[in-house]
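Let's inspect one such protein example.
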Amino acid sequence: MEKKHKFSIWYVLLGIWVVLILQNLLAGALAIHTIPYSEFLKLLKEDKIAEVAITQNQIQGKIKINGAPHGFSGLFRTVRVDPELSSLLEQYNVTFKGEVESTFFRDLLSWVLPTALFFGVWYFFMRRMATQQPGFMTLGKKKAKIYRADDLGVTFKDVAGVDEAKQELVEVVEFLKNPAQFTEIGGKMPKGVLLVGPPGTGKTLLAKAVAGESGVPFFSLSGSEFVEMFVGLGAARVRDLFEQAKQNAPCIIFIDELDALGKARGVGAVGGHDEREQTLNQLLVEMDGFDPKTGVILMASTNRPEILDPALLRAGRFDRQVLVDRPDKKGREEILRVHLKNIKYEPNLDLERLAAMTSGMVGADLANLVNEAALLAVRRKKKIVTMAEFEEAVERVVAGLEKKNRVINEKEREIVAYHEIGHAIVALSLPGTDPVQKISIIPRGIAALGYTMQVPTEDRFLMSRAELLNKIATLLGGRAAEELIFEDISTGAHNDLAKATDIARSMVKEYGMSASVGQVYFARQKREKFLDIGMEGAVEYSEATAEMIDAEVRKIISEQYERAKQILNSKRQTLSKGAALLLEKEKIEGTELKALFNSEGKSS
């Protein structure tokens, strides 16, 4: 049997040791020793020098074998001091020669090394900058992020509460999957689909769902990414984007926040050929130029459609506009079900009640609400999220974070308690008002010292004149309770007065609900379609009409204030008991106050 030798690290160590010994011996034998010039002269006079080689500044030579000291290899060098050395060497019969010292490599390194170092540092920084931002050669290239269908992982199952919008986009998916069924009869798919709606309603999610359902590449970028400080770059990026899209067809191009790019030309621009306008012009040209049969669908989203350039919205460009509006009660319930898949919650959670509590919220608000409830459950050391956490999360989103550490003196607490109970009693006394769910005197948010939470039972899209007047009376109930009990008023009603005045002015100027002013529309101050921001406009009515409007607004406010005072005066016992209960518990449910309210009604 053949004997196999195993590898051992000792062999390597032994080999390294032998090499080091040989290296030291050879280095000692061949080493060139540097000696002083005086030592060299001494050796020369003792006739121990065999030969030398002389340069301008140095002498290198060899000592005779019998003249070398112990441990001396015989080779030496010294710095030349005496320029007239030749006669002395001839005197002692030393063979000598002159050598020209070569400075080529030294001179080469003197400029090559710094140059190489400079270019090395430059190359390092350019590579680092290239990884962080596009280089000069890529300035005109697209900045779009390309997603494949597998990367997106979003389908229509992940989108809820916008059924009408999904139905509109199903045709786009069918066209991308099977364009032949449209082209057989001569039909053409819309070149552009514009998703319009308030912020947070899920416009970007819908666009991703279309790409996920159709299984095509998804080019995504923001409208602001086109516009740069260098003129012409935006237009170049538009050209490159459409060129890349044609190569990857069928695909979807999605431009988020189109209003950053597609604002109406000539509005707020210094000149007629600024960078944004050139980019918009190039986008219009590209939308006219590409064939819809290629399978490239352009989608965009905006919450400000009224400021878009009319050329973008004409037929043949963004010829289909899909409204992604705030969800109704059923839609909010569906959205909550989607977000609840990611958390652990109690099985008997009342989603219908939770959806009713979140009136006016969009998908992003509901996602935040579910996350806040989960965080509250973790903070309270719970294993699952219960309805109590969801109710607290609604209050936190609507009214702000509780400020339990804020110190309020007893007099102010009493004023706040009567103020909030005043709101609640007026709301309970008037028909058509939203039910009172909770009353609190715990400070919340930045300035709220208390709040009365009213939850609508259903979504409302129209309000009658009587309902608006009841709403004003409810808002003024807090101020009326202060005056009735303390015979004085505080600054706590400033937000109530602002809301009440806004409703009254809208009744007079916009809704034609004033007998003296008449059925005339006076509100020339236009508002954004989806954003609650006023835009200044010219006032097109006389000063006499303005005085009449102001007088009518003041009349509505005064009448409803007196009405609220009368209601609270008739329910004074309930007002006192409710305030005492609120001062004791700091937070009461609407059902508790309603029980007090009904018991007084029966006793009277």
In short: Residues 132-140, 533-537 have pLDDT under 50 and may be disordered. The two ends are 117 Å apart (CA to CA).
